[in-house]
Amino acid sequence: MLLTIREDQRDRLGILRSLDSKGIQDFCQIAMQKLHGKVNPRVFSSAAGKLGVTPEIVTGAVDGLVFILSEATNAQLSLVDFQTSVMVLSADESHVKALCQFYEENRDEACQLLSRYCLDLPFYHSLEWRFEILVGSRCLREGIEPQVLLRLTTKTPDSDEVGIHVLRLDIPNLMHLLRTLEEALAESQSNQTRKILRAFR
Asked: Which ranges carry the COMM domain (predicted)?
């Protein structure tokens, strides 16, 4: 899976092409400060003065880096997919390497920061399953009835509350559950869902 970086976002990040790898690392550090909500506005003015551009251009580039880190973290991109995604921003190998290093070093921290904006809903913790087959009974002399017994454990963020859910499913219902989960996973990674999530940040 690759990131979709729109044309206007590429334009905002265009200033990165004029920087060396150290300059890109500095911009990445500012982006992390902004993600923390602790960036000093004077930083933008100082960087703009050194580069001979307006503070708005610097702010746009930093916002673009925050967007890329957030989207890549939410999509749980591998380092290879991230590298392929950001190659559209610069043909310079040192630039791509600096952005990959930024992602690799900060994705876990970014994931924790972004989780603060999520709903306080129980999340998956573990799943145990057992396959059971009824091979015969007084009512069922021939044939088999396979079933799957699931024990789903969930946890609530910021608390020790644990939920245990036991499900007994026959094969048709298990296949329906599997299809529903696959559809939900695909929907969560769609562009429309990402736009909705960005609106609530």
From this structure: 123-192
